[in-house]
Amino acid sequence: KEHKSMHIDTLKMLNSPFLRAIMLIAMLSLLGIPLFAGFIGKFLALKSVAVEGMFVVLSIIVLASLIEAVYYFKLVGFMFSKGEKKEPLKISVRQKTVFTLLAFSLILIGVAPMTISNFLLDAGSMMLDGESYVTMLVGG
For the chain (length 140 residues), average pLDDT per consecutive 10? Predict the structure, then answer.
């Protein structure tokens, strides 16, 4: 039985600038680059570890992040390199819409993390307060 797995050559099928941009945004967010959603989480984790004086853990996180960056940028280089033409991935308008919304969310959360956080905290508080939640649902 043949095992189907994601092979690095599959990235060459991302010959659409749209798909490459989406993949790049996702990778930059995973790396914790500023202006992307992953930054605030990584920053807060590093800050709390530093405040606690756990410099060995801090060093491990920074080293792991550097290794991660090298790996991701190799993937990005491979993704944008020229090679044999592969059959392009076909994506529907619905899929493009979902990818665009997700990429936009990664950027929006990175640019305005506290605005999003405060909105979610307010929404959660309102849902936990039964009377406010029912009032909101029935519109009264």
Answer: 59 76 93 91 91 94 94 85 69 93 93 84 75 69
